Amino acid sequence: MSTETSNGLCVNFYAPGDVRIEIMKEIPQIDDGEVLVKVEACAICGTDVKSFLVGNPRIKPPQVMGHEFCGTIIEIGNGVDAYKVGQRVTMATTIGCGECVYCEKGRTNLCRNAEAMGFHYPGAMGPYIKIPAKAVRQGHLVDVGDLDAVVASLSEPMSCAMNDISRVPEEELNTALIIGLGPLGLLHAVCLREKGVKNIVCVEFPGKRTDMAKEMGFTTLVPDELDEKYKELSDDEGFDLVIVTAPHNPTQGKAPTYARKGGYVSFFASLPVKDEMLSVSSRTIHYNELIVYGTSDSTVKHVKAAVDLLRKNPEGFRSLITHVLPMSDFHKAMDEIKAGNAVKIVLVP
Questions:
Q1: What is d(CA 272, CA 26) in angstroms, rounded to the nearest whole number?
Q2: In sequence order, which residues have a C-beta less than 8 Å from that of residue 197 and are 6 or more positions away?
Q3: What CA–CA distance (Å, rounded) separates 345 from 124?
Q4: Which residue from 241, 286, 295, 290 is spatially nearest to 267, judged by alpha carbons?
Q5: Cα separations in angstroms, 78 against 30, 86, 265
Q6: Which domains does the chain have, with CATH numbers?
Q7: Entry pTM
Q8: Taking Cα atoms as reference points, which of 344, 330, 22 lies closest to residue 155?
Q9: pLDDT digits over 55-87, tens only?
Q10: E strands, 180-258, where?
Q11: Which of 81, 257, 306, 331 is the 20 to 30 Å CA partner of 55?
């Protein structure tokens, strides 16, 4: 297989602002324990945008970008028994060492030596992606069945939302406040609705994403309305779950204010280095017995949960995909994202 030419285009990162559309001259060669996947679709992640704009120290250039993908297995290496040629898959793309205390507990996303597709290994913005043996061995490829490839590419980002939501007991989750309507904010909203949460309120400035949330039937507020209206929208108690997907320091500091007593507050978004220290009311957390937690990345379990939810109602998520473009239009995709015209953009070979 490796001696065959590819001629498909891939998106290669060289440096901040220097991302090139180049031909993948040869199909990657796989070794024992590895798997080769023909890419059907790859969505653009916020980390891809950040890498393009300011770089990422984890990337070893030149590197094929992308990790939110769906594809078909076309070759398996010796010793691979869990997968078969022709199987359609997505992937939990952060790969733990498999041996540390976190990996042994199934929390591979917390592994101190974790590696990621599109960063440490060539990614999926190209015609083919080679899956390393340790990812295959740990079951990181997840079957998607006949799920449409463009929708299936949402599995990985959606798994991060599933990780977040899974931290709250389902029986306690009837109301939710989402602060920030980037792609992950909107994914949270749809996931919560698909899981049966009836009262979901979204906070964002006016624009395309707020309009989309309204069209999808969510209650929306602009940030200046939140202090005045949050109790009215939560039976005068506050919300069971407050999720902050906005990387804004003062907003994160105020988030516990909006939770009910005994409620949950998720710091889903990270803050930039040197702006990560918050001013938070410890009295609010203490006297209201709030559970405040962070969420980062996801595991195989969360990807499987995401695929299960997508397969139940793929059309419920399709509207989040605002653009489907060829790999060659990566720079056009960046322009659309920077202009605020996109939610999720999916690239196809």
A1: 39
A2: 173, 174, 175, 176
A3: 14
A4: 295
A5: 9, 16, 46
A6: 5-159+298-348 (3.90.180.10), 168-294 (3.40.50.720)
A7: 0.94
A8: 344
A9: 998 898 999 999 999 999 999 999 999 999 999
A10: 199-203, 219-221, 239-244
A11: 306
